[in-house]
Amino acid sequence: MQMLLSLRSPHAAARLLTAAPASTPPSRAVRPPGPPRASASASVLNPGANAGSVPDGAKMPPQQRRRRSVAGIDQDELVEPDALADPDSSFYEINGVRLHHKVCSPEDKDKSSDQSLDNTVSDAGQSLIGLPILLLHGFGASVFSWSRVMRPLSRIARAKVLAFDRPAFGLTSRTTWSSDDTKPLNPYSMAFSVMVTLAFIDYLGAEKAVLVGHSAGCLVAVDAYFEAPERVAALVLVAPAIFAPRKTVKENKPGEPDRQTQKVPNDGNLPPNLFARVWGGFLELWKHIAGFVLKMITVIRDLVRFLYLKALVAFLQSPLGVILVRWVMDKFGILGVRNAWYDPSKVTDHDIQGYTKPLRSKGWETALIQHTISMIVDSASMSRVSISKRLSEISCPVLVVTGDTDRIVPAWNAERLAHAIPGATFEAIKCCGHLPQEERPQEFLSVVERFLRTVFGTPNEQMFQAAV
């Protein structure tokens, strides 16, 4: 029998050993001296066995895979944005994008809002302004950033207040898009946000609305005004992330002659000077050479800038870009929220959870990258006129409100922005950071109510407001 086993193939031997009765143990060959050798039958019976394997009885428990976490959110258990919706959440689809939004009416009794803020709305606020308000959040924020003031604002305006999550933020659906996509418009572009803003005015059944933007949301509000000024009744720009232009015209001091009208001596009657003519021709030649050099520098600069932008976009679209976005959000996401407040110790766990909730949705990092790329492309577009150069064209009522200790958008920039807009009103809330509507909601509501009453109130209310 041993001879037959030795002549058969290892597979045949394994089959015979397996079929042998339990009461008849297989015969064993005497092992020669030396280190043990793995038999062929053993390798067949246990395909995972090798010379360096550990016996089953001595195996250590398997090592658990390290779970990824961003700002305390487990990235191995991401869900669709719809699954994170609140009871009062709604979705409105535009061009295949499901936009998360919330609507608050003056008759609503929302227990989730701060009821004490309703006391800040005066009796005069009961007058019928009758214009809906659209709230536009800033970069990295969402509908959550307006949760403290939505219901009081609806009572002030005596109309609906709507806040929505722009693509790449909040619970709005994430979608993939490329430059050769068949979709009509990049959902992460400024143009799409403007289109959605105007579409929500139609959604509310209104001809026009008051647009309230915060930080980067102010860019959307102002662009929406330039796109359709007849649809915007007023603008409220909160801590606006818009670069305010500097004054380029220097005013003359009293008694100082006008620089543009100063008389220049007339050299026509002076005797000709050969040296002056030669020198003038030399300077004219250098003028042409300098102009040519400047043109070449401009071309090279534009080329370098183009190549730099192409390389930056390619990096962001690579796996390294995704890793970088996760790292930045993990290291600076919560820190950025605390830094936006005048007193970071007042930031609650509820606030942190509200800002980190979108990190639980699938594709959040890819959408954020696409939004960043869209901003880069828009800023590099030569055909796009900077908003800062068009501020003087705004003719609707404008309120600019900011915190006096804003560390992200300095208060002096907001004040300078108000001076650049004809007739704009500027208000600075004391001891407040970048988020007045969250950190100082009572003061914020008072400022907005006073502005709306002044602009849209009855003549009696306007006289009362002027007396105050």
UniProtKB/TrEMBL annotation:
<feature type="compositionally biased region" description="Basic and acidic residues">
    <location>
        <begin position="249"/>
        <end position="261"/>
    </location>
</feature>
<dbReference type="Pfam" id="PF12697">
    <property type="entry name" value="Abhydrolase_6"/>
</dbReference>
<protein>
    <recommendedName>
        <fullName>AB hydrolase-1 domain-containing protein</fullName>
    </recommendedName>
</protein>
<dbReference type="GO" id="GO:0009941">
    <property type="term" value="C:chloroplast envelope"/>
</dbReference>
<dbReference type="GO" id="GO:0003824">
    <property type="term" value="F:catalytic activity"/>
</dbReference>
<feature type="compositionally biased region" description="Acidic residues">
    <location>
        <begin position="74"/>
        <end position="85"/>
    </location>
</feature>
<feature type="compositionally biased region" description="Low complexity">
    <location>
        <begin position="16"/>
        <end position="44"/>
    </location>
</feature>
<dbReference type="InterPro" id="IPR000639">
    <property type="entry name" value="Epox_hydrolase-like"/>
</dbReference>
<feature type="domain" description="AB hydrolase-1">
    <location>
        <begin position="133"/>
        <end position="445"/>
    </location>
</feature>
<dbReference type="InterPro" id="IPR029058">
    <property type="entry name" value="AB_hydrolase_fold"/>
</dbReference>
<feature type="region of interest" description="Disordered">
    <location>
        <begin position="249"/>
        <end position="268"/>
    </location>
</feature>
<dbReference type="InterPro" id="IPR000073">
    <property type="entry name" value="AB_hydrolase_1"/>
</dbReference>
<feature type="region of interest" description="Disordered">
    <location>
        <begin position="16"/>
        <end position="86"/>
    </location>
</feature>
